[in-house]
Design goal:
With about 230 residues, the chain is α+β, with helices and mostly antiparallel strands. It is about 30% helix and about 35% strand. It is built from five helices and 16 strands. The strands form three sheets. Strands 9, 10, 11, 12, 13, 14, 15 and 16 form an eight-stranded antiparallel beta sheet that branches. Strands 1-2-3-8-7 form a five-stranded antiparallel beta sheet, with helices on one face. Strands 5-4-6 form a three-stranded antiparallel beta sheet, with no helix packed on it. A hairpin with a 4-residue loop joins strand 7 and strand 8. Helix 1 crosses helix 5. The radius of gyration is 17 Å and the shape is globular.
């Protein structure tokens, strides 16, 4: 295996068969020791977070694949905390797509003059550029198109799939009595077909889930969701 990228929460290796291997780590995003799925820095290390994230990712991706939602997921190895994926290229230097059902986090910080904390949002989708130096700035569909990052048609597909996936995850959480406040997804183009794929992960590390007014930590979310 060839190590080709070291990320905040995962390392990426290239396999001889053309697939890639994602090694999940116990680092999670946040600031000052506080977990925040919307942060662009590693805030803390939680023992077991990597495996918990992988298990939830496998749980969600397997179902999405069965439903015909294009993803890069191939299989997972829980003993090694790794996931095999199809090769895909990111948009520009990488985008993050957030679907929001409640006004919290950075949305509340930006628009607090117009919304109350926890106010319902109608599956609001926004895209940010992966750029740590500039604090992952939000970007519009027109700007993405103008800068050649993705076309307006691709943006429409991105938005439609984001809402579809977020509502699916929210429905799965609801079965366990949980509420999805927001979720951060990533997409790329299939290296062979150019089709837009869901990539990266779906886990407690990239969403906010609550039981009533109580926030559910990533490891606890995995336990709740995968309990028999």
């Amino acid at each position: 295996m060839e190590l080709i990228y070291t990320g905040k929460t995962k390392d990426v290796f290239k396999l001889e068969d053309g697939h890639y291997l994602l090694k999940f780590k116990d680092d999670v995003t946040g600031e000052n020791g506080v977990f925040d799925p919307g942060a662009n820095t590693v805030g803390l290390t939680i023992e077991g977070a990597g495996l918990a994230g992988l298990k939830l990712t496998q749980f969600f991706y397997s179902q999405l694949n069965e439903q015909g939602v294009p993803t890069h997921f191939v299989d997972a190895n829980f003993e090694e905390a790794t996931m095999t994926v199809k090769p895909a290229t990111v948009f520009g230097n990488g985008l993050e797509v957030i679907c929001r059902f409640k006004a919290v986090g950075s949305f509340l910080r930006r628009y607090g003059a117009y919304v109350k904390e926890g106010q319902d949002l109608d599956a609001f989708v926004e895209v940010t550029i992966k750029d740590d130096d500039r604090q992952d700035p939000p970007i519009s569909a027109d700007a993405l198109n103008m800068l050649g990052i993705l076309s307006l048609e691709e943006y429409a597909t991105l938005k439609e799939r984001t809402v579809e996936i977020a509502k699916f995850v929210g429905a799965e959480l609801a079965k366990k009595g949980l509420t999805l406040y927001d979720i951060k997804l990533e997409f790329g183009r299939d290296a062979k077909t150019n089709e837009i794929l869901l990539i990266d992960e779906i886990s407690g590390g990239n969403m906010r889930a609550y039981k009533g007014d109580t926030y559910i930590e990533p490891l606890e979310l995995e336990k709740i969701m995968l309990a028999e």
